Amino acid sequence: MHSVMCPRTCLGFTNFLFFFVGLIGFGICLWCSINTELFRDLNYTVTRSELVGVIANFVNLKLWLTPLTTVIITSAIVAMLTSCCGILGAGCKTKCAMKSYIFLVSVICSVAIWFIYISCIYNIYSDNDKTRKFLQSTIRTQYGKDNDLFTSLWDYIMVNYECCGVVGLADFKDSYWIQLNPDKLFPVQCCVLQNRTHLIPLVKECQSSLDPGTFNAIGCFQALRQSFVDSKGLIIFSCIVCLCAYASLMSFAYCVLRGEPLITDTDGYIYGARRARHAEPEQSESSLQNMMFVNDASEPTTKVVRVVSAVNPFQKYKYYPEQV
């Protein structure tokens, strides 16, 4: 019984933690969608951290035509519902809730692994041509729009990886950004920057000239691929950690669903529990209810007499009379 309580405790604590994180994300996104400036001012006054502004700006971005707050709120609700199923299944041992929890966690983990490790990391690492063309299309159609997620991601990548475009400068030709800035060849993020925080280029006229050494000629696709190649050990380790975490949650859920520990010994006894004795007491078929016999293959039959005290009925004695 104690070995079953450990998975229930671990599963309940983990889901409570996920529920709390989802609730915080839901509250932040809802607050920012109603009044972003109040969220920024109030939290910055309390925390004095620049991260408040980063969070406020991020949740107000748009993924194509969909506000990112809608996506995050939906994800937070799904995460909280999944955690509630886990908490209800672990705390009350409700099989329906535990089965729903196993299904939801499996779907969420499959989507996350497919998006992060396959669509993003693996396709770039394997130099996938379709992924390269898709990224080029995002620069042509999306880059330069206000409060756009792709624009913010490309700005971050170009500044931190010191690259320009997907393949090179030609990706900005006939793009939405070039229509807004016809007198420039590429955004300031492609320049060699003197100050990354304030986007101050090393050469003032960088965006209007093609002088070598004033801009980053390497494409971001190649820069990201080289970064993944250099850190492939860390990527594999993180993937293994995610799979182990998923396997642990599923093992805990299966233990709770089955009602007993996952590991048993070869004789069918619960692992870690006290093994049953080979000499099982059997009630005698005799009319004497105070007699019972113990059968053991290695010893002859032994008579055990059980005596109940007349003064205290809850007090019992046992003695083994000599064999006749």
How do the strands and helices of this protein lay out in sequence?
Blueprint: H1 2-34, H2 36-47, H3 51-59, E1 62-63, E2 66-67, H4 68-92, H5 95-125, H6 129-141, H7 149-160, H8 176-180, E3 193-195, E4 200-201, H9 220-230, H10 232-258, E5 281-283, E6 291-296, E7 299-308, E8 316-319
Antiparallel strand pairs: 1-2, 3-4, 5-6, 6-7, 7-8
Helix pairs in contact: 1-2, 1-4, 1-10, 4-5, 5-10
Using the alpha-carbon principal axes, give the shape: elongated
H/E element order? HHHEEHHHHHEEHHEEEE
CA-based gyration radius = 33 Å
Strand order of the largest sheet: 5-6-7-8
Q: What is the strand content?
A: 5-15%
- The separation of the N and C termini measures 42 Å
Measured as a percent range, the helix fraction is 40-55%
User: How is the main sheet built?
Assistant: 4 strands, antiparallel
Descriptive keywords:
elongated, 4-stranded antiparallel β-sheet, alpha+beta, 10 helices, 324 residues, two-stranded antiparallel ribbon
Please provide a written account of the structure.
- The protein has 324 residues and is an alpha+beta fold.
- It is 55% helix and 10% strand.
- The chain has ten helices and eight strands.
- It has helices spanning 2-34, 36-47, 51-59, 68-92, 95-125, 129-141, 149-160, 176-180, 220-230, 232-258, and strands at residues 62-63, 66-67, 193-195, 200-201, 281-283, 291-296, 299-308, 316-319.
- The strands form three sheets. It has a four-stranded antiparallel beta sheet with strand order 5-6-7-8, with no helix packed on it. A two-stranded antiparallel ribbon has the order 1-2.
- The longest helix has 33 residues, at 2-34.
- Mean pLDDT is 80; it is low at 264-297.
